[in-house]
């Protein structure tokens, strides 16, 4: 347990702090409610677990060997966040037409271009892999811990969005909320390119 505590703490911090996944979940929770956002939450956790497992199995070494790959993923993640921001600004605000929901598959695949997810996966692989277990068992363990810890943390952001959604009763309020969330995603995207 003493060896697991630092991993648990790291996973809580990485999953609870603002980032691309959490900003998406606030917007999804506000517009669609928790139940309809649940597939995206599960997709983030599944995609992150696969990413962490693959990184622990050696994928992270590719970034060291080919730094251009890291730059390309960073650029793709930035562009994706800007597209999300653009779609959020242009989304309809009428009561009967909420913005498109993020699916399980979209959320899972987004982890491949989410720089924060890569930082988390590479850090877990390089710092928290248990040396007393075999590579596969250790990779499975830390991937599972990341997913289990991530679920309530990411759910917290979606529920925060649900709470915000309750005050978005008028089209003007929804439009302002969409603009704030889009600006947050755009700022986050630009920060990722530093």
UniProtKB/TrEMBL annotation:
UniProt keyword RNA-binding present: no
Predominant cellular place of this UniProt entry's protein: membrane
Cellular location(s): Cell membrane
InterPro entries per UniProt: LeuE-type
Membrane topology value: Multi-pass membrane protein
A Pfam entry, by short name: LysE
Keywords annotated in UniProt: Cell membrane, Membrane, Transmembrane, Transmembrane helix
Positions of transmembrane segments: 40-64, 71-89, 139-164, 176-193
Name this polypeptide is given: Threonine/homoserine/homoserine lactone efflux protein
């Amino acid at each position: 347990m003493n060896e697991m505590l630092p991993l648990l703490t790291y996973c809580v911090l990485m999953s609870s702090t603002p980032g691309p996944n959490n900003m998406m979940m606030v917007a999804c929770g506000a517009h669609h409610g928790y139940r309809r956002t649940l597939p995206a939450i599960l997709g983030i956790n599944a995609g992150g677990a696969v990413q962490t497992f693959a990184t622990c199995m050696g994928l992270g070494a590719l970034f060291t060997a080919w730094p251009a790959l890291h730059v390309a993923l960073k650029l793709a993640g930035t562009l994706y966040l800007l597209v999300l921001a653009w779609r959020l600004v242009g989304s309809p605000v009428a009561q009967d037409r909420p913005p498109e929901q993020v699916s399980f598959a979209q959320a899972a695949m987004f982890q491949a271009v989410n720089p924060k997810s890569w930082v988390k996966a590479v850090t877990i692989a390089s710092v928290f892999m248990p040396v007393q277990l075999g590579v596969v068992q250790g990779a499975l363990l830390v991937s599972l811990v990341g997913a289990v810890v991530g679920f309530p943390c990411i759910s917290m952001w979606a529920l925060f969005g649900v709470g915000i959604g309750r005050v978005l009763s008028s089209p003007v309020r929804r439009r302002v909320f969409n603009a704030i969330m889009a600006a947050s995603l755009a700022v986050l995207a630009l920060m990722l390119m530093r």
